[in-house]
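Good morning,

Both structures are done.
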Amino acid sequence: GAPEGWHLPTDEEWKQLEMHLGLSQTDADMTGWRGTNQGQRLKDESINGTNDFDFSALAGGYRSSTNSHHDLDVHGYWWTSGEFSYDSKWLRILQNNLNSINRAYGSKDNYYSVRYIKDSEKTVQDVDGNIYDIVEIGEQQWTKQNLKTTSYKDTSSIGLVSDNTEWQNTKSGAYTWFNNNEIGYSSPYGALYNWYTVETGKLCPDGWRVPSDDDWKQLELSMGISLMDADTTGWRGTNEGYKLKTISNWYNGGNGSDEAGLSVIAGGVRYETGVFDAISQTAHFGTSTEFDATSE
């Protein structure tokens, strides 16, 4: 296994590296040889690379399941932890006389080179002691689960409001559980919060914040949406939402691929009238950006 604090990179982490080198999201998602000079920038000078980032990739070849050796000084092959099929894993391949990067798959019975990637901070804890996994997407870090704290970060309590009329009329921070059922919905859906909790600036743990509209746009751009589409309102993009949604728990075939690892679950909504709606059908996320005096 990897040394403590390190891990075998996933297929998605290789894609992040490739996009950092200038590969487009569309090309990163393809198989075969992709890009222009991204492989050249990773290769050692001894195999016609520029080694821009001291990655110093060499053409170490591979050993097959039959113990024969192949491609020394011609190709370098690297494992990922990403499953292609029950007997294969995603790989990355570099070639001595090509400047692109090959996304391919290889048998689990073969022998390929290994590079490790350093673990990021994996979790964050709220003031109530709830622990959230952290996922890195592009240059951002997001919590993988919905917030379910019942206290602000200064330890003061957030008001639990069950009554519809009180929910409709309150002008202070309040939270609720879907259908007023904590046992049934707190996990995995988290809590539902009104705008006044967000407005305090005290809802998230130290070092964290409720994302702004621009934060969400940056996430969407990382998923492949165009800047023009990101700046419009309404339903935008093609499959960007599909990449964010969990692979299960969405109603009527609405599951996603969870390609980004954000694991968005359909936690429903409580409208300003107090009515609960759309559990397992929609996910509604407030931002810290005001649309007008009465909306966020």
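Second structure follows.
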Amino acid sequence: RDLHKEYRRQRQMCIRDRNYPRRFGVFVNLKFNNINDNDFGSKSAEILENAVNEGAIGLKIYKNLGLDLKDSKGNRVKVDDKRLYPIWEACAKLNIPVLIHSGEPSPFFDPVDKFNERFLHARQKPKSFRPPEKYPSFDTVMNEQYNMFKNNPKTIFINAHMGWMANDLDKLEKHLDSLPNVYTEIGAMIGELGRQPRRARKFFIDYQDRIMFGKDSYKKSEFDVYFRVLETVDEEPVDPIPAQLVSKAELAEIELRVQEAIRGARKRHTAGDQDSPLDLSRSSSLYPRENKMEAI
């Protein structure tokens, strides 16, 4: 009953968006709470087929798969759970992509301390983090996702948020090279890309047919930042920092550290030799000396 109720809700979305078929595309969702049912796979495939007939163009899988989702026996449902394979096979048959968000950025699985680059995010949204006593490790979830991609080569997958590999584009290149059925998108990754502009530019050129523009939410003011990063060579800091960017924590942290370093250097500069350049090496108190300016 739940599956058919969800189908009816999404059917209404498809009908509504038919008014602008060239501007909107609806991705259907599925509920996995009855994954233990014998007919779970066949019913899910039926919902997918009906949704496509009504205009849906893809399937969206949320991050609860592999993290919070449990079956009726209380076991965590892994990303590569074999009970989900009929769904991936149905998507291949229907020729629709699967947009999948697995896990979280790797710092969300690390201890929340001054060495965690998402420390500010942890202060603002502590529930985003995944302590090891409650969740599998980052590598566990990512390996499950890789296995699922590899074992379903006929299904097209869109690995959301660059698979959390935007900070290691060499690794992402190997990922895409080994999985020709996988694409990716840049939602919430503008911070990671912005701090390696030359490497990111090369990656975008080399894999231009495998990368999509993506964004978690619509906020008009934030698009200026994306256009500035993607379409210009401007390396000036972004001010003000858009409020809803997932990378806000990272950008704000760097900005705060740089501003503190400059303020401290200016005070010493004013009190000392004003003809000498600013000395930033002793400026930040947020990190131990060996982790100060190297991280900026």
